[in-house]
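Submission sheet (multi-component)
Chains listed below:
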Amino acid sequence: MSEIPVIPGQAVFDAIDPGTAIERTREAFERYGRGEWEMPAKVYLDSPPYGDFRAMPARGDGLALLKWVTSFPGNSARGLPVVRGEVLLSDAETGEELAVIECSSVTSLRTGAAAAVSAQVLAADGAKSVGIIGCGVNGTWSARCLAAAGFGPGVCADPRGEAAQALAGELGWRVGERAEAAAQDVVVTVTPGHEPVILAGDLHPGQHIAVLGADAHGKREVELEAIGRCRAFCDEWEQASAGGELANGVEAGVIRREGVTQLGDVLVGRAEGRRDSDEITLFDSTGLAIQDLAICRAVYERWREGSVDAPVVTL
Ligand SMILES: NC(=O)c1ccc[n+]([C@@H]2O[C@H](COP(=O)([O-])OP(=O)(O)OC[C@H]3O[C@@H](n4cnc5c(N)ncnc54)[C@H](O)[C@@H]3O)[C@@H](O)[C@H]2O)c1
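Outcome: structure written.
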């Protein structure tokens, strides 16, 4: 029998601030880049016409986890979360279960943190202003993490005016049109990926674009012509070329493996990041299980220190 904590989402947010999420997520990309953390590609289970389930395992630093998570884009209209599920954290030496952790909190922190890490690594010197296109759950956490990393102020764009207003109000940023958000130094797209929200005509030299919403096959946030004008980076090539924004470029023959750099490779010095101040960098985030491991490891450490309140269950 194992006694394990079941850690609710609010306890995760109370334990891990955006600065910690950024630090831990950056470390995850580095450890994965050095081959110290393991991660098979995520498995998608379609649930048409509603969305899909994803199974995401990873192992590192004596821990292993499985995240079982949804992306059901139509859920917002039904008043339900798009992303929901749980993480099962285990001991990698004995296989013993260690914790069950609510996953949309983990997803939000690591997704927002990945946008911030990509900007820290790839944005041009002096880049400050931010455009957020899609101010839902993960757009909001991306903005919070970018603000924690010293970026901003920013422009918040969303057809749901109340979502853009709430985010702008919280951070002291402003609400704007899509094209205005797309013109900022650092632009983050976190929409359901039904149509392009970055057009070739929006781009100008020196921008950094972090594309987060298109994390499964069939989604798209960037016009093909715009992708062709950017220097492409991704979190992990197998995932990004199969189900990320770059998959659209691969299918159209605009993107090839040798033209795409993984963020971890830049962090460990194996590949070049931005080459000059005019380059437009595009980071395709599909969301990695190693990012979840980074956050869950931090949450579990806090729980062991006694600073996370969670009910314990016996399995
Ligand atoms: N890359 C990753 O790691 C990662 C992680 C989590 C979620 N996602 C993906 O990000 C997307 C958003 O997830 P979420 O949980 O934030 O959903 P959400 O529903 O909370 O937010 C999406 C927001 O986009 C807005 N939107 C829709 N069309 C728009 C448009 N044309 N222009 C501007 N805004 C628009 C919606 O009004 C909504 O506020 C989903 O596709 C999800 O699968 C990616």
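Remark: The pocket of nicotinamide-adenine-dinucleotide is lined by residues 71, 73, 76, 82-83, 107, 111, 133-139, 157-160, 163, 178, 190-193, 195, 197, 212-213, 215, 219, 285-287 (CB under 6 Å).
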